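Hi there, hope your week has been kind to you so far. Please have a think about how the structure follows from the sequence. I've dropped the whole record in just underneath, so have a look:

_____
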Amino acid sequence: MLETRAKQRIKSMEWEDFTLKVFSIDGEPEYLLARIENISELGVSGIIEAGTELPEKSMISGIIESDLTRSRIRYSGKIVWTKDTEVGIQFGVKFTEEFLLPDVIIARSMAAA
């Protein structure tokens, strides 16, 4: 099956210093940390510890940040898919609004290519 995307997703093994933080799920306060797998202007996918509650279709909000580069991106979006794996729960978020990725993320993806 051929899959097309509206925006190119930036995949990299170099996301260790970037963290996706969830501060609310469906308007209720929450605090979760996830590792980023890929990102685009439309959404992000990540992986979170197994056993964490992250239901599909939930609205979440939080920050994507890096202490190393001092970059912070506020986001809100909807969980569009989840998948249980051996290392945790993979998930995808579609942002409620498209935004331009910061230069540091674009530069990081180019350096990894």
